[in-house]
Amino acid sequence: MRVYEMSAAAGLGSWKPAERPTPEPGRGQVLVRLRAASLNYRDLLIAQGQYPFAVVLSCLDSRQPVEILFDQGIGDLFVARVAGNYCPVDLLGSTEFATKVAGAKLVVVLGHTECGAIKGACDNVQLGNLTTVMHALQPAVDEAPDPGGERTSKNKKFVLAVTETNVRRTVAGIRVNSPILRDLEQSGQIKIVGAMYDIATGEVTFIQ
Ligand SMILES: [Zn+2]
To answer: 0.90 cut: is pTM over it?
Structure first.
């Protein structure tokens, strides 16, 4: 399992995998340690409330389990998920709560490679309520730089360009649509950044 240094969240650049220590042999010992850790977490949460240090706005994709890929546990992160990691008003309000009320210091918009939602938007998919999601992603399809080749999901370079454009649009949209978050950032109380998760390598790269 890959482990990532969440402490790198305050800076920009790539996160490198770290080595996880090998568990001690013996299922009994491991189970005891797991129970102890679980009780410690529970006691801590009940006694002190919750103090997550970051909000991650992520895609719904099952290959991008946010707490696991950043090696974070209970109470460490607010995670808001929607296919295509855009930021509708519900998630914008949730992010305002997470920062202004609950004190999280970092907002990360996390896109990923091989995103099915982005591919669907590239092909103008229409399916029930999913069509609303596709419409929300369409501006990124229209604005993505031309990497050459056809502008459909068959073109991996185009899909990647749309995915990165969508992350940048989402970050910009958060600043435009939320005076609360914009003010928090301008006063240095929070940071809002975009990032890309490569599902093939497990690497997270921040987008300037
Ligand atoms: Zn996705």
So the answer is: no
